[in-house]
Every structure is written in C-alpha cells, then in structure tokens.
Design a protein that fits this description.
10% strand; mainly alpha; Helix Hairpins; binds manganese (III) ion; globular
Length: 202
C-alpha cells in the first residue's frame, strides 16, 4: 500500500513564503487524502498493489474502468505532491547553477526570461493544476501545465520542476493573489534537487 513520504523539513521551514499552516494542511490533509483514496481504489486489485506510482501513472489507460478516474486523480495527486515537497527548501539558491543553468540560458536566453515564462504558465492555469518544467522525449526542456492532478509523465514528458497552483496551496496566506504566491515560491525552489532531477534524465 502507498504511504505518505516523510517531509524533510518542518512545517514552518519555508516561512514566510509558504506559511506553516498551509504546509501542514497541504501535507497532512490533502496529500494524505490522495494516498488514502489511492489505496482505497486499488484495494480490490492485488496486482496493482505491486505497481510503482510511476508505473500506474504511465499505464492509466489500462487501469480497471470502475476505479480508473479515482486512480488517475489520486495516483497523480500522490506523485505530484511527493515530488513537490522535495522541490522546495529553506536553503534555496537563487537559481540553477550547473548543466541545467546552461541549458536554460541556451533556450530562454537567461534565467529571468525562463522564470517569467514559467510564472506566466502557472498564472494561466484555469482552475486547479500545475506548471512544469520537463524534458521532452528528444531531451529538450519545455514549460507546460497540467490540469487537476495530471502529471507530465502521462504525456511522455519527464518532469524536473513543478508548481502546485491549486488554491489549497496558497489561499490561506495569499487568498486570490496567485501571482504573489508564484513570486514568493521562487525563493524556496530547491535548485540542487532540480539539477539532480535534470541530471537523472539527461
Ligand atoms: Mn496540492
């Protein structure tokens, strides 16, 4: 059965950018609910219980019809949030600094241009969803977004950076001001982890 992964920092570690109350609710309530609902959905399908999360996400179309939607929503929610927690740190460097930095500069010209495009993508997500930086099949970095809890893996992309723009991720502190949340979030991006994610795929 799937489990909530451990958080490697305290709920208040990302203050003032991500407030402790939001962090706690997001992790202990929202993420936990995705885990619980995913386990409930696969309860009667023993063979699915041996799948990794990634295997489930990459095989959504083969999931049993009665639980297909529940699996899509909750496996996605579990994977997205498991990734998201590791993509943030209180010891954030201002920007990527290695191979990823070079590649970003090559494609967008400089980091600020990249940041602007990613932020715009995040701002534009209508309703609930995520903004992503991923590697395409041909190994090119691309910015995209997904709705609800869809993950870029479903489209054959390899996600290395993601931003949750569901209201539950920011409403307590930022209310309707998603743009302010996006701007603040850049202060806690764990570029060391994002570089590692990138290196894993290239
Ligand atoms: Mn969320």
């Amino acid at each position: 059965m799937f489990k909530l992964p451990e958080l490697s920092y305290a709920y208040d570690a990302l203050e003032p950018y991500i407030d402790a109350k939001t962090m706690e609710l997001h992790y202990t309530k929202h993420h936990q609910a995705y885990v619980n609902n995913l386990n409930a959905a696969i309860e009667n399908y023993p063979d699915l219980q041996n799948f990794t999360l990634e295997e489930i996400i990459c095989n959504l179309k083969n999931m049993p019809d009665p639980v297909k939607t529940a699996i899509e929503d909750n496996a996605g929610g579990h994977l997205n949030h498991s990734m998201f927690w590791t993509m943030m740190t209180k010891n954030s460097k201002a920007k990527p600094y290695n191979k990823l930095e070079k590649e970003i500069n090559k494609i967008w010209g400089n980091f600020d241009k990249f940041k602007e495009e990613f932020s715009n993508q995040a701002k534009k997500v209508f309703g609930s969803g995520w903004a992503w930086l991923s590697l395409s099949k041909s190994g090119k970095l691309i910015i995209s977004s997904t709705h609800n809890q869809d993950n870029p893996l479903e489209n054959g992309l390899k996600p290395i950076l993601g931003l949750d723009v569901w209201e539950h991720a920011y409403y307590l502190k930022y209310q309707n001001k998603r743009v302010d949340y996006i701007q603040a979030w850049w202060q806690v991006v764990n570029w060391q982890q994002i570089e590692e994610n990138y290196n894993k795929y290239i």
